Amino acid sequence: MKATLDLRRVGLALVAPVLAILVAFVVTSTVLLLAGDPVVEVWTQLLTAPRPRLVVAIINGASVYYLSAIAVAIGFRMNLFNIGVDGQYRIAAFAAAVFAGQGWLPGPLNIIVSLLIAVVVGAAWAGIAGWLKVTRGVSEVISTIMLNAIATGLVSFLLFRVADSTAGSNVTNTKTIPTSSQVPGFALVPGTPNKVYGFVLLAALVGIAYWVILNKTRFGYDLRATGRSETAAVASGVNVKRMVLTAMLLSGAAAGLVGMPLLFGQDYSYGTTFQPGLGFAGIAIALLGRNHPVGIAFGALLWSYLEQQSNGLQITVGVSSELVFIIQGVIVLAVVIAYEVVRRAGLRMEQRKVARQLSDQPGSPTPEGVTV
Amino acid sequence: MAPAVELQGITKRFPGVVANRDVTFSVQRGTVHAIVGENGAGKSTLMKILYGVIRADEGTVKVDGQPLALHSPSDAIDAGIGMVFQHFMLADNLTVLENVVLGAEKRHGIADRARAEIERISADYGLNVHADDLVADLGVGIRQRVEILKVLYRGAKILILDEPTAVLVPQEVDELFDNLRELKSEGLTVIFISHKLDEVLSVADSITVIRRGTTVATVDPKSVTSRQLAELMVGSELPSASTDASTVTDRPLLAITGLTLAGAGVRDVLHDITLTIHAGEVLGVAGVEGNGQAELVEAIMGMREPTAGRILLADQDISDWHTREIREAGVGYIPEDRHRHALLLDAPLWENTMLGHQTESPNVKGIWVDAAGAKAGAERILAEYDVRTPSIYVTANSLSGGNQQKLIIGREMSYTPRVLVAAHPTRGVDVGAQAAIWDHIRRARREGLAVLLISADLDELIGLSDTIRVILRGQLSDEFDPDVVTAQDLGAAMTGADQREPGTVADDPGTRHTKAGHGTQGEEEGQ
Fold first, then answer.
1. Best mutation site among B333, B398, B403, B406 for testing chain A: the one with the most A CBs within 10 Å?
2. ipTM value of the model?
3. Count of Cβ atoms closer than 10 Å to residue A217 Cβ
4. B158 by DSSP, 3-state: which?
5. How far is it, in rounded angstroms, from Cα A319 to Cα A44?
6. How far is residue A122's CA from residue A119's CA, in Å, rounded to a whole number?
7. Mean pLDDT value across chain A
8. What would be the CATH architecture of the domain defined by B239-330+418-483?
9. Is the CB of residue A187 less than 8 Å away from at least one CB of chain B?
């Protein structure tokens, strides 16, 4: 019983994203056609196997997206919409970069304490929104958007104060992290000197922790219950206010880690060129991956793949690489709709199945044989 | 003359629990025709077909002899069919006039012509509705009449009323029935859905019984008793709510003193509530919805912070405890709205059987969920409480209401409770499940639990309770003895029609008046 039902569930779960990707394919092709762009060439460029250098870039990009999407997903599971991952990761990465750059602690210890700082700062920044929601009833959507703007301003302002300005350069950076505290990469992909971030492991670890905490602990049960029905959770004894605050803190803590693979594996400092927009990509990927740790991994890889593959579009076929935003946008839109359609279909299927199995059960009265 | 409505061979295959199968009956013009059947028998589906909300797979609907294709409620309205839903669809902050014209602006405009039309309909059918009253100020009975007027305003000649008495006290029911007779005498046709048989027998000219999705009989109310009707409905011998010998002890398990909950306005939502429930006692609380029952339950469960007063569980003061501690201390809770407060509809059953007990064995070990233990517990609860389901892995959503409720009761009885707080435990469940639930409450009583039973079903309260008290505007009456009290007495106390200090034990219910507002001083007259 369980096995068959689960198989069906897995099947249902896969239908939606596949459908969404197909829709994105059709819509994008239509856009290309209408614009008079070469449809076939564009897809050929996007769908040819990426070169080893790009494979590394895809994995690296995905690890960062993955962390961001997990941060968003923690909120989603509680029905909290943490739009503020963007601000949280920036301010956390900045704080960690400032600390790590000082090199007060030796090698790995410096890394560990920096990670802790990132986690705490990210959690604290998200905690402001959580605290406002719990004490003042401020929607987290509004407050995290505002906090994003504040974080951006605050980081720019502070960056200027602590910047390690090199003469003759207008790049503004924090102090570079000592080499002993830089996280070495793995030469996973043959055929390229580029290495996969060491912190890919961090992303995997966070994904596993997310799954274990949510599915295997009492706290996770309470959190999921609250997300499914706040009223039922209250009646079951969940302290919803505390749960909101905790979920926000956890989401922010995960968000704090988003910038870490970049900081310790590539940039070694926080500066004006630090990759922006990761928080918003996280929202899309969490939706696409349906808040499931494995689904999110696929979503993150897809996102990163599309981005890396589209880089060559301008040169090879003369189509702007911004095309990828259309694809991504349509995928998210379509996937949200597809999930709802599939959810309803699944519910109907299950109800029918339950009804059928019950009428097959011996001993239960049947509609036939009714006499007046 | 062709019947006003004729249904022939209506079949609706519905993915899920209930389908209509070969439903056939006809309704004569100018009559009140009742459709009775237990919950889940397919009455609502049938009415939705007639009102164009859903489409039948097979069969024909004829109105005045003309076959109709109903694709949407507006088709039904055009054909002169109107529906009054069980849950009122009125905007509180608008006037009666505004509510009535909303969506029907084209008929008589939105101002004086509409007002005149409303007053005319109100006068013609004795509805006593005034166009410029604010809906927020109106009581339940009159709101229902506004709903009826809305339907008439849209030109309906055939009215469908879905369980119209569910929200009314006995006196209001009488008024409604007077209105229905008025409508009938003006040549309108009323289709009246109910499962309250006495009411059906008193108002209907003809009764169609539906069981398991199909029509089993159409009977003349003059020639059947309510018991025969009920047996047609269930197709078997009937259970009744009654308890055995008293098991009440002198050991108080739940004692509330001076419980007060301040409201947003001037009046307290709960005012100086004092009650004691002993081991083995069922205390029934009757009352019109919205008089503080929900708040009382939530205060006991720790979901609301009382302004004053103490709640003792055995000899522990639990007034300041959190819901979780209260539940862990052995207070079982059957909430009034099971979908909102008792179930995770999208979660599998085994996660639902641990809800509210997610800190207790066998569901957890330390901080970890013990899935194996929880699943074994779920299997046991589902078997012991006869929850009909293919497995513990289907979602709560896929169960029928009765099975959901049996699951909830099984769950609440399974973690060694001392007190059971049950709010409307049989609301919206079929007769079979109702009997089972009554049995479980009786068993709880036998096993020495203190049970707080809140219900709108007066028969249920009278049948199961050792003591009944009435809640009105947040205050509790004195005790009524269920052995001698009648539904009419309780109804009078529930509406405040007995202006005396509510709560004298009635000893001669025979001479009670039946009309609201006329039952004043009823107790004196009876003595």
1. B398
2. 0.84
3. 16
4. strand
5. 13
6. 5
7. 88
8. 3-Layer(aba) Sandwich (3.40)
9. no
